[in-house]
Design goal:
The protein has 16 helices and twelve strands. By secondary structure, it is an alpha+beta fold. The chain folds into three domains: 176 residues, Triger factor/SurA peptide-binding fold (Orthogonal Bundle); 106 residues, Roll (Chitinase A, domain 3); 104 residues, Chitinase A, domain 3, CATH 3.10.50.40. Strands 1, 2, 3 and 12 form a four-stranded antiparallel sheet that branches. A four-stranded antiparallel sheet has the order 5-4-7-6. A four-stranded antiparallel sheet has the order 9-8-11-10. A hairpin with a 3-residue loop joins strand 6 and strand 7. Helix 4 packs across helix 7, helix 5 packs across helix 7 and helix 10 packs antiparallel against helix 11. The N terminus is likely disordered.
Length: 476
Amino acid sequence: MSEFKPLRNRNANKSAPLASLLTILLLSLALGAPAGAWAQAKSAPAAKVTAAKTTAAVTQKTGQPQLVDAIIAVVNNEVITQQELEQRLRTVQARAVKKGINLPPRAEFQHQLLEQMVLERAQMQLAKEAGIQVDDIMLDRAISRIAEQNKMTLQKFRDELEREGTAFPEFREEIRQQIVTQRLREREVDSKIQVSESEIDNYLGAEKNPAQAQQELNLAQILVRIPENASPEQIAEREKRAQSALQQLKSGGDFAKVSASFSDAGEALTGGDLGWRGQDRLPKLFLDAVANLSPGQVSAVLRSANGFHILKLVGKRDAAKTDASAPAVQQTHARHILIKVNQAVSASEARRTLTELKQRLDNKAATFEELAKLYSNDLSAAQGGDLGWLYPGDTVPEFERAMNALQPGQISEPIESPFGYHLIQVLERKTDAVSPERKRNAARMAIREIKIEEATQDWQRQIRDRAYVEFRTEEK
């Protein structure tokens, strides 16, 4: 079961410009795959997929066939065609020009993009096997929320996409893929992350340096990934590649261009940009590497479990200070029953099940705790659906609006959110400023974010290494 995470990403820019948002949506990769899922696919012969070379042809007036499309990669039992790659190339090139990113030579750029498409295809295959899907109703609501976040009507948002050269049907399917892969990552990565009380204690103890706690860093990275179970020779070859990238940077090479040429990270084609992050949300390896750098400088080659990194310190600033004397805010102690929509459970079935459960609760035929343990698709089910004390802004808007409308003891009707459908019960409310519990929850989320990012990179490597992949770019 995946864990319902009411907490938002506190570092997210709620008013991000449309171009930045679309770049993230087009290029980011959500990750996750069980180790055994690819055992058969890895050894599957490509012949089972299709013929050695499949093309469509038309006959010109001369009678000579003209190549229309061709297979350039096989990913397990599916193919990526030349037309698909060309379409993605045009989209990413347009975004890069708009952001002022210098792209590498076409051959290198095409190789990086094709690798991303391979990973995306492998992720979608795994999501399909897991029964993860997004219906049209949920997709339309997600796109409406994106338009609202950009302070546009849906029609105006659609017009803006078309002006930027992105066809709305294409954008719509990209968003569907983003939601599917996010759910896959939540299931295969996020739900397995645990944070111990001792880790929280250590984190809070390290926060006693107020200067460090108030610093935010803007970093970019180049990651040369090490394959799973790599041999010493493979590790040496990957390190040599990272050193070659560093040498280009030292010779005056543009970081964004070198990233697009060398990096295996999801942000490789967006300049390697990691964005602004508080120091408490960066791995110690990164903090130590940039501690003595000035903005614009790059680090030496770093080694982590996932590969070799080169970091650039883009900027440094003071974080927004928190005022301990801020007015008290209302907290809500709530619990919920979550039913996720997937291949086995439709949206109508989820709503109907929760309606029946609410009737049982209204008739006192069962307790909320009992039903949560039996029916909820969430790790909180083990605690009877208890989500603890929630502050304003801790939950997604749909959940928070429904929760705020309830009186203590009251149970909502079935409520839809990006996570699925919920029954919500408010247990009690109180006002509080910055309590020790709140500080521990914030610390837990910060530690969790770091762990998720590291685990996600590991899953990305596993998915790619365990998939059967055959490139056919040499075929004409």
